[in-house]
Amino acid sequence: MNSLEKKQLLGLDLNQMEEYLLCLEEPRFRGRQVYKWIYQKECSSFYEMSDLPRSLRKKLDEKARVSIPRVLKQRVGKDGSRKFLMELDDKKKIECVLLPQSRDRKSSYTLCLSTQVGCPIACNFCATGQSGFQRNLKAFEIIGQYLGSKKELNKRLKSSQAELISNIVYMGMGEPLLNYDEVIRSVHMLNDPRGINLGQRRITISTSGEAAGIKKLAQENIQLTLAISLHACDNTLRDQLIPLNRKYPLEVLFPAVEDYIAITGRRVTFEYLLLDEVNMSRNDAHKMIKLLKPLLANVNLIPYNEIEGLPFKKPETAKIWQFYQWLQDGGLNVSIREERGSDINAACGQLRSDYRR
Ligand code: SF4
């Protein structure tokens, strides 16, 4: 049997894992053991599952596989950020990024996950969006980024910290809500207390404004954070920056967001890229205050990271603070995101721009 014909165990939930082991005429508890090895010990080799009988390890090796993506390349930034280039079973490549939560070397990390190979939204400031769309990721490939990153950290840092990766953001390559079912499935797997056990409140899904997906998400009863990439507060500019705005203009997107807040009672985060000479005027600040003040919302300003070949510029620090001040004076709950990973092209919007370097 060639390896791709073997049963993929990564992505099975506990019940499915137990069922699979029962199918192999093994007791149900063996399923729990395999589940722990995969999700708690990032183990992809059955021969290393030392509490399984030798005969079962051999049987599993013949019939099944655990495809934690292979790390082809790793770049480490000055601030401790780590960008991984990972290869999937079909040789497609994706990137994900670990961002330290502070400059302390013992800091835990936020992991930025990809949900698609490339991205169909094609935002004109984004490296991923410029490289086209290839396919959606399966839940096991999303979870695989977590397990692969954790494995690398354990290998390289030899740290005894129990929870090296404390937060997850679905903010890497792709529009998560266009791959809705697999993304939600991966959220449940991250959250499972019998496996990875990451609290729902430590998970953020970021969307470019997929209003249909936001409506569905409101019904899920998951305590995650929803982040919306706003970047412009009128349709003319937003149409240019985020082509999805032509499908879901602000007058469609905002009722979906308001419903989401009303149903979940959760505060929403609006991400706003600061593009010099594009979206940072006093008038832009006024429009944002008018739009967001009535909502339960946080605003996160993200100074742009320049990308070779794209025309957008990073604003000077003084302009960033001026824009921040206008919003704060207008009564918005606003913060400026601290820059991480830009020296290794791992910052927001920069993923997949440097495969060959
Ligand atoms: S910013 Fe996000 S949604 Fe837009 S093209 Fe890039 S990855 Fe896709």
What would your notes on this structure say?
The chain is of the alpha/beta class. The chain folds into 2 domains: 3-65, DNA polymerase, domain 1; 70-344, Alpha-Beta Barrel (TIM Barrel), CATH 3.20.20.70. 34% of the residues lie in helices and 20% in strands. It has 11 helices and 14 strands. The strands form 3 sheets. A 10-stranded mixed β-sheet has the order 3-4-5-6-9-10-11-12-13-14, with helices on one face. A two-stranded parallel ribbon has the order 1-2. The radius of gyration is 21 Å and the shape is elongated. The two termini are 36 Å apart. The protein binds iron/sulfur cluster.
Short synopsis of the structure:
This protein is an alpha/beta fold and 357 residues long. The protein has 11 helices and 14 strands.
CATH first level of the largest domain: which class? Alpha Beta
Query: Percent range for helical residues?
Result: 25-40%
Main sheet, how many strands, which sense, barrel?
10 strands, mixed
The CATH fourth-level homologous superfamily of the largest domain: Aldolase class I
- Walk across the major sheet and give the strand order: 3-4-5-6-9-10-11-12-13-14
Q: Hey, roughly how much beta strand do the residues contain?
A: 15-25%
SSE topology string: EHHHEEEEEEHEHEHEHEHHEHEHE
Bound molecules: iron/sulfur cluster
**Total DSSP E strands:** 14
Integer-rounded radius of gyration: 21 Å
Number of folding domains? 2
Low-confidence stretches: 353-357
> Helical element count?
11
**CATH topology (level 3) name of the largest domain:** TIM Barrel
Ends apart, CA distance between termini: 36 Å
Please give the CATH architecture of the largest domain.
Alpha-Beta Barrel
Mean pLDDT: 91
> Which secondary-structure class do the elements indicate?
alpha/beta
Shape: elongated
